[in-house]
């Protein structure tokens, strides 16, 4: 009887270490947030103190509620709410998290615009805040649609309350953009945005002298987020890595445009999947770099930033490879666990995307372009696979 109760409330005993790992990570994030927050508060750097609290306590809250309350089945535990599928609970949690992130982002940039209104272009700043909020909602909707390709849906118990009204409103808003773009529009617009970074200012103002993307290709300048690296042993390899990723992104954009041409008949599934994987990896590379580069570079040395960045990439990859050959249910759980891991990183990166795009338009639109490219290519490949399956059946 006790074993049955333990299984119902806590899942299989072999998954206990996953729960402990999440609880430990949440505790470490909370302690780090309070430590750095109080330290900077004592130094009278109130703005950085508040930012640090958000950087660390935000992920702690998301991981705590996400892994331990809303989506415990991502850790192979029995969910508390079994009236909704894992996919539906992911959608609910992501929409609500995006809503609170939108409030924080709008509040922070409203204050920033108010303080600096005489030095900035207010219309541009407001437009970027609006675009960021719309993209956040669209990404939440797109993530649910992406999971729908593998995780089946089911009838769920109808709920009511302010949270459900917020979710419905945010989902409706995000769906407008997802449906408006479609597949081909997403690929075309994403590719054109990425390629336009060759001619639009990539860096300037506080990042240094103004230059454009084609000057990165020529090797005259570097990607803006790696300009502040002061470790000689790291500088060379990282600069070459970021330049190679940028070049690869431009190549993916060109190949994606060629692939959707009306007269293009060579549309093998393998090529499309490869392009989707590359576009997604590049988008994730730049998003994690945008998020972690702004946080850790201000608190730790470059080696610490590199160690954390590698952790962000190596751990999810190891988890995915561990379950890639397992049953479909375990793969779906691992998939949701990885997406939940990256959720606060995405939210933080979007917050800084506004600043980067304002100061460095080419960098911001390159990130947006790669996200649109990934979504358009991945969705197109899914539709092609569905049509092939229907013809075969």
Structural class: mainly alpha
For the report, how would you describe the main beta sheet? 2 strands, antiparallel
Poorly predicted runs of 5 or more residues = 1-14
Fraction in helix: over 70%
Oligomer type: single chain
Order of helices and strands: HHHHHHEEHHHHHH
The overall number of domains is 2
Strand-residue fraction?
under 5%
Order of the strands making up the biggest sheet: 1-2
Structure summarized in a few sentences:
The chain has 393 residues and is an all-alpha fold.
Using brief descriptors, characterize the structure shown.
393 residues; mainly alpha; two-stranded antiparallel ribbon; 76% helix; disordered N terminus
How does this structure look, described?
This protein has 393 residues and is mainly alpha-helical. The protein folds into two domains: 1-80; 81-392, no CATH class. The chain is built from twelve helices and two strands. The chain has helices spanning 2-10, 16-42, 46-70, 86-115, 122-148, 162-196, 213-217, 232-259, 269-296, 302-323, 328-359, 361-392, and strands at residues 201-203, 211-212. A two-stranded antiparallel sheet has the order 1-2. The longest helix is centred in the middle third of the chain and has 35 residues, at 162-196. It starts with a helix and ends with a helix. The relative contact order is 0.12. Mean pLDDT is 82; it is low at 1-14.
């Amino acid at each position: 009887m006790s074993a049955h109760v333990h299984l119902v409330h806590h899942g299989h005993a072999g998954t206990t270490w996953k729960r402990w790992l999440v609880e430990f990570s949440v505790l470490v994030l909370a302690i780090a947030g309070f430590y750095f927050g109080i330290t900077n508060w004592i130094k009278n750097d109130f703005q950085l103190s508040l930012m640090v609290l958000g950087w660390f306590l935000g992920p702690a809250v998301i991981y705590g509620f996400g892994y331990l309350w809303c989506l415990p089945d991502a850790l192979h535990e029995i969910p508390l709410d079994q009236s909704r599928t894992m996919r539906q609970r992911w959608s609910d949690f992501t929409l609500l998290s995006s809503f609170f992130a939108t409030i924080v982002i709008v509040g922070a940039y409203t204050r920033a615009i108010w303080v600096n209104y005489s030095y900035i272009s207010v219309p541009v700043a407001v437009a970027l805040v609006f675009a960021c909020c719309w993209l956040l909602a669209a990404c939440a909707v797109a993530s649910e649609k992406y999971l729908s390709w593998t995780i089946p849906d089911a009838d769920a118990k109808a709920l009511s309350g302010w949270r459900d009204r917020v979710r419905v409103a945010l989902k409706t808003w995000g769906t407008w953009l997802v449906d408006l773009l479609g597949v081909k529009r997403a690929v075309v617009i994403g590719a054109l945005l990425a390629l336009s970074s060759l001619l639009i200012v990539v860096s300037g103002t506080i990042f240094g002298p103004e230059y454009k993307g084609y000057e990165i290709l020529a090797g005259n300048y570097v990607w803006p987020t790696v300009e502040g690296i002061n470790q000689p042993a790291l500088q060379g390899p990282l600069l070459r890595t970021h330049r190679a990723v940028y070049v690869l992104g431009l190549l993916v954009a060109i190949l994606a445009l060629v692939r959707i041409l009306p007269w293009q008949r060579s549309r093998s599934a393998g090529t499309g999947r490869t392009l989707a994987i590359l576009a997604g990896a590049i988008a994730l590379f730049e998003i994690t770099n945008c998020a972690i580069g702004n946080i850790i570079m201000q608190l730790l040395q470059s080696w610490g930033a590199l160690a954390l960045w590698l952790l962000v990439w190596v751990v999810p990859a190891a988890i995915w490879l561990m379950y890639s050959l397992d049953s479909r249910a375990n793969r779906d759980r691992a998939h949701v666990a990885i997406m939940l891991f990256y959720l606060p990183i995405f939210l933080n990166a979007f917050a800084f995307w506004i600043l980067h795009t304002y100061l460095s338009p080419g960098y911001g639109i390159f990130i947006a372009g790669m996200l649109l490219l990934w979504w358009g290519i991945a969705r197109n490949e899914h539709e092609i696979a569905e049509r092939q399956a229907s013809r075969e059946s």
